[in-house]
Design a protein that fits this description.
The protein has 435 residues and is an alpha+beta fold. 29% of the residues lie in helices and 27% in strands. Strand 16 and strand 17 form a beta hairpin. Bound molecules: shikimate-3-phosphate.
Length: 435
């Protein structure tokens, strides 16, 4: 991947309407369930990101016809639960942990072998969290000492297990539920903290009997998925950068329409409000079985907080943006119980601490969080560490820095947020690609 660098500096107050792209988690799941359903499913609001396109390409390799009807829309011609066809070539999940972990669960129950590979960042991410419980279900998966590539053996007969997740992970839960579709008996999962329940909601929408409530999910094998259309809400995690940006730039007011407000995703909203942010939800409604609403955010002075640990799983992808808010707030912010940040697309505690320090912030790293002392940011040159959310967070930091923030390695932004630069500049950022 080429190393695209960005420069971000103070622009004008952020104003206007910002339509962020479709939800990544929902787009991945919609493709997978539609692929193994009976009949044709239309996915509207599909995220045209590299991560979700990689999942579409893998499913196409496995024999699923996926039509791009228009940008942001796919029609998936489902092949049924047992209709996927194996290939000898590796299946490339790109940068997508969600793609790789969920596909591992899906492929564990197939009649054929598969090899899943990923890019440099994904190749460093822990996979035992999925392969261990899948092995307990009867799967056989070879790893490179717990890391990708993964070789998933086919022709195994799976049986349901009752599994208490050691870490709160929607990806692991979803991988087990997908394997459970192919297993004899019941697959039951208990979580230490409830995580996003899109797989559960979507399985129900595709007609698979499933019992779930926050922290628990269980299903039995041997049913059929029936094609259905899916409306993908705008991704709260993409909206997050604009929520922080408008909060910290004086004179700003942004409207973000039709953002997904699943309660397992909106922890940042609560955290920012505790910090004094002015964010309102207008026209809250349901779309495709998910709560959505228009978010209106206005500038407000932010103060540091002791982040309630219970919010951590509900904002697990939003910490890079939160760190920027904390670095310019008055007072200190304490983050605890967020060790999972160390195994995301990069070690997000280390990546943010390193970059913020370059910009002059005072931040103490802890094994499971950080203490961020608010103040002023200056100019500097920071690394994205091949992590889309780190790159976008420093683009936000540049809005309030004393001079330009140069961000190295921004090409990965396209994994989750194609068009970020244009959308950001459209509402008042001063962000440009540099040679
Ligand atoms: C995701 C779950 C989260 C999140 C990731 C997407 C999903 O990961 O960080 O970006 O779609 O299930 P974990 O489940 O590993 O916490």
């Amino acid at each position: 991947m080429n190393r695209l660098d960005w420069s971000s500096q103070p622009g004008r107050p952020l104003r206007g309407r910002v339509q962020v792209p479709g939800d990544k988690s929902v787009s991945h799941r919609a493709l997978m369930l539609a692929a193994i359903a009976e009949g044709d499913s239309r996915i509207r609001g599909f995220l045209e990101g590299e991560d979700t396109r990689a999942t579409a390409a893998v499913l196409a390799q496995l024999g699923v016809r996926i039509e791009t009807t228009t940008a942001g829309e796919r029609v998936v011609h489902g092949v049924g639960l047992h209709g996927l066809r194996g290939v000898s070539q590796p299946l490339d999940c790109g940068n997508a942990g969600t793609g790789m972990r969920l596909l591992t669960g899906l492929l564990a129950g197939q009649a054929f072998d598969s090899t899943l590979v990923g890019d440099a960042s994904l190749s460093k991410r822990p996979m035992r969290r999925v392969t261990d419980p899948l092995t307990q279900m009867g799967a056989r998966i070879d790893t490179r000492e717990g890391l990708p590539p993964l070789h998933v053996h086919g022709g195994r007969s799976l049986h349901g297990i009752r599994y208490a997740l050691p870490v709160a992970s929607a990806q692991v839960k979803s991988a087990l539920l997908l394997a459970g579709l192919y297993a004899d008996g019941e697959t039951g999962i208990v979580e230490p903290h409830p995580t996003r329940d899109y797989t559960e909601r979507m399985l129900a929408a595709f007609g698979w009997p499933i019992r779930f409530e926050p922290g628990h999910a269980s299903l039995e094998g041997g049913h059929v998925l029936h094609a259905t259309d899916v409306d993908v809400p705008a991704d709260f995690s993409s909206a997050a950068f604009f929520l922080v940006a408008a909060s910290i730039v004086p004179g700003s007011e942004l409207r973000l329409p039709a953002v997904g407000l699943n309660p397992r995703r909106t922890g940042l909203l609560q955290a920012l409000r505790l910090m004094g942010a002015d964010i309102t939800i207008e026209q809250q409604r349901e779309s495709g079985g998910e709560p959505v609403g228009d978010l209106v955010v206005r500038h407000a002075p932010l103060r540091g907080i002791e982040l309630p640990e219970a919010l951590v799983p509900d904002m697990i992808d939003e910490f890079p943006a939160l760190f920027v808010a904390a670095a310019v707030a008055s007072g200190s912010t304490l983050v605890r119980g967020a060790a999972e940040l160390r195994v995301k697309e990069s070690d997000r505690i280390a990546s943010m601490a390193a970059g913020l320090r370059v910009l002059g912030a005072s931040i103490e790293e802890t094994p499971d969080g950080a203490i961020i002392h608010g103040g002023r940011l200056g100019a500097g040159s920071v690394e994205s560490h091949l992590d889309h959310r780190i790159a976008m967070s420093f683009a936000v930091a540049g809005l309030v820095a004393g001079g330009p923030v140069l961000i190295h390695g921004c090409s990965h932004v396209a994994t989750s947020f194609p068009g970020f630069l244009e959308l950001a500049n459209g509402c008042g950022f001063a962000l440009r690609a540099v040679d």
